[in-house]
């Protein structure tokens, strides 16, 4: 088969399919907890955004972009989510250029593109109004211009490399592992360019220096426990090796579940690539060797750090390894005995997985958090009281305001969550049961003097039981409105409707 001719029509077709899958999901997305926090934060002045993030985590660039996007297109959920979809589509379009820069074999470029366009974590995050799509775009462009500057020596490519690397850092701090791995590639494989690389590093550091004070405050918050830990331990991913291989497998195969099979396939892929790297001497072999090392010094190092301090979150932070995994998968596919068969299977499996996921998002029994507010909108009156428990107030308030629902007093329980970012310390809730019981008692007394019904957006945290018990003792539970599953998990699992006795 003439793979070069096939590449001319197959790669654009694959990219078009990936773009289509992402836009098909857009009408079926809705604003979730972290997204509502993104919107709330992006409404603030730019300096306020920086101040808030200094006591939370993340970097400000995405919120700055969202701030400007709102000014242009408003804060409707679909208008806002289009921003992340477009960022993710831009990354898809950049992937073939990155692969073309490194590999002469068309089969590598076809297979690598197929992995990227149907990657389930990317599909999942494309409609998530967070910084992940921006981080992926910066990663792909950072690697593209890293190699262009390295091989062509043009000032323009070097400046673009610095630009997208600094942008990546301001998208999320963990992007730092991308330039770290690039520096390792430079030091190991391109020693003659090391001096130029050191000079470029100075420009990178200069671009990053503005965020360093805020980064120091974030690190301090984690070290003293002021910021709640929300990153899972590696036990969730079957240890360090399991986490690393699951990260590889999630970006090479659009298969959800069957973890042990995925780990085995990813392990076989990495071992096969490693064996090929010792044998091959072509330009493609050298490129794959460099990317293999880069992946170890980016995602591999993140996993190792997570053995001591959790920072690894599969299908999110590890997306900085996406272009490397796609390239290595394509390289492996080009080296097997029947590359045509493997390519066909790879495209077919990933296409089927992406279609299945998109169908679940479109037709599955999922709630869009808005559905509950829509149902309540006709019932709520200015006399009714709303209690938003846990961290449900971000999503609830967004939809209430979007739909211009007129209701009475709104309370957040525990009240301290009003001034905290979009996370909650579950363990601290259990430790503070006495204080929460007292706060609940004060709230109950306020509710007794009100009129109308009481609507409680019920969060499933065990530490909130003191409030729920006192509500049941003081008022009559009329009904419970169940809340179905959201793609990123429930913010509140039901709405309890009480009447005053």
Number of helices: 22
In the sheet with the most strands, the strands line up as: 2-1-3-5-4
Residue windows where pLDDT falls under 50 for at least 5 positions: none
Coarse structural class: mainly alpha
Name the overall outline. Answer: elongated
Gyration radius, in Å: 25 Å
- What is the terminal separation in angstroms? 79 Å
Overall mean pLDDT stands at 90
Percentage of helical residues? Answer: 55-70%
Report the sheet with the most strands, covering strand number, pairing sense and barrel closure: 5 strands, mixed
Order of helices and strands: HHHHHHHHHHHHHHHHHHEHEHHEHEE
Number of domains: 2
Kindly describe this structure.
This protein has 22 helices and five strands. It has 501 residues and is mostly helical. It is elongated, with a radius of gyration of 25 Å. The protein has two domains: 3-363, no CATH class; 369-500, Rossmann fold (3-Layer(aba) Sandwich). Helix 19 links the parallel strand 1 and strand 2. The protein is 65% helix and 6% strand. The mean pLDDT is 90. 45% of the residues are buried. Strands 2-1-3-5-4 form a five-stranded mixed sheet, covered by helices on one side. Helix 2 packs across helix 4 (61-73). It has helices spanning 3-25, 33-42, 46-53, 61-73, 77-102, 106-117, 120-126, 132-152, 155-171, 177-189, 194-208, 212-224, 239-252, 259-279, 283-306, 322-335, 339-363, 369-377, 393-402, 426-431, 433-448, 465-474; strands at residues 385-389, 410-413, 454-458, 475-482, 494-500.
